[in-house]
Specification:
Blueprint: E1 8-12, H1 15-26, E2 32-34, E3 37-42, E4 45-51, E5 61-66, H2 70-79, E6 94-96, E7 99-101, E8 105-111, E9 117-123
């Protein structure tokens, strides 16, 4: 098998509600739509929001967003009504204002309009996902 591409998928019980969430909080608009599937480009990475009658578990993050300033992003999203549940800190980490600090990584989590758990992370040395 030769893999030619990859993408992240998030289920949506209400694709229009999901569209509004990603537009209103992140300024994202789908570049394509097909049978209720919303195709996004997130900093050059494909994201597909697809209609689903199933519900996400919400017990693990399904999408990770890397930012330069996690504090500013959390403050902006909180001002827009997004809530950030607190999770126990892993060993060696501290938690302040819902943000887990591991030294080289600071992260927090929120649920989108469909219950998908999304992380927001700031890496001390910049994104490790860019080559």
């Amino acid at each position: 098998m030769a893999i030619i591409d990859s993408y992240t998928k998030l289920p949506a019980q209400d694709p229009e509600r999901a569209r509004a969430f990603w537009r209103d909080h992140f300024g994202l608009e789908p570049f394509a739509e097909n049978h209720g599937h919303l195709f996004y480009d997130v900093q050059g990475r494909p994201l597909l929001v697809f209609p689903s009658s199933g519900a996400p578990s919400g017990d693990h993050d399904q999408l990770g967003l890397v930012v330069d300033d996690v504090d500013a992003e959390v403050a902006r999203l909180r001002a827009e009504g997004v809530s950030f549940p607190e999770f126990p800190a892993p060993p060696g980490a501290t938690v302040q204002d819902g943000i887990v600090d591991l030294g080289t990584l600071r992260a927090t989590w929120f649920s989108d309009s469909e219950g998908n758990l999304v992380s927001i992370a700031q890496f001390a040395d910049g994104s490790p996902f860019r080559q």
